[in-house]
Amino acid sequence: MSLRQMEYFLAVVEESSFTRAADALHVTQPALSHQVKALETAVGGALLERMPRGVRLTAMGRAYLPHAQLAVRSARQAERAARAAAGVTGGELHIATVHAIAVGMLPGITARWRSLHPEVSLVLREYGSTEALEEQLERGAADLAVGPEPKDWKGPLVRVGREELVIVVPFDDPLAGRGTVRLTELADRDWIRCAMEPLVDGQPVLDWACGAVGFTPRTVLRTEHTSTAVRMAAVGVGTVMAPAHMVRGAVGEDCLLLSVDPPWHRPLAVFSRVPLTGAGAVFTELTANSQAVVDSGTSDRGQ
């Protein structure tokens, strides 16, 4: 079996049609069918069931699919890594991250990258959780990831900064004028929760933090995206705990940010499956320098 045969198989699965897959690949349908049939012969059985209107995976096909996806992604990543090793001279750099970092941290870094290295295009892949981010990077979905530092990552990892979780309230909130707040002062608050909320010891961070000081947060609204939750907090729907950089990226100066006393930080890192060279190494250095500027502009209130 060949990488091309796997690519053809994946195209048919994605398009649910030999005809559409052939058009997408710019090959003839007989040539595509021949390659898929050769792949099925090599693996010893049918991967696709031909239907009057489209195709669907057989049991063998369902088992084969994730491995084919990993093989194709890994091959493409290997090609990009080899080209990148020669320097920042062209091509693409694929970056995986979580939504909060994509909204709050990466826009400024990306703008700086475009001004310094316009010949290298960036492809950004966003995920809803750190677990999904790490899983997809392991499967070869991107060249590197920018996110909360993984606990047991076995590949290259460079710490590039940290993020602070803050409390978001509207301008007319009774806490206006305060710089910090203790969680115990918020025990009677209504809270907005987000599906992308960070986990600590397997619990959503707000449950973990509030439980540690003796109360359970009263949830009045749940959202999918952190940026939505922050906008809801800005107009007084409820209180939100969110990364400070994401809040500024989502709503700018339209709300108040209060540091938690004691503060809550977590380290951020760039990590990869393979050594960070060429464009990946340059992007990592740029990210670390950008975060160093951010950290130097704020007081160090502890970990």
Secondary structure category: alpha/beta
Overall pLDDT confidence: 86
H and E order = HHHEEHEHHEHEEEEEEHEHEHEH
**Cα shape:** elongated
Largest sheet: 7 strands, mixed
- The amount of beta strand, in percent, is 25-35%
Helix fraction bin: 40-55%
User: Would you count the extended β strands for me?
Assistant: 13
**How many angstroms does the end-to-end distance come to?**
52 Å
Total of DSSP H or I helical runs spanning 4+ residues: 11
CA-based gyration radius: 23 Å
Low-confidence stretches: 296-303
How would you characterize this protein structure?
With 303 residues, this protein is an alpha/beta fold. The protein has helices at 3-15, 18-25, 29-43, 59-84, 99-104, 106-116, 130-138, 205-212, 226-234, 244-251, 278-296; strands at residues 48-51, 54-57, 92-98, 121-127, 144-148, 157-169, 180-181, 190-194, 199-200, 203-204, 218-223, 240-243, 256-271. A hairpin with a 2-residue loop joins strand 9 and strand 10. The longest helix is centred in the N-terminal third of the chain and has 26 residues, at 59-84. Residues 296-303 have low confidence and may be disordered.
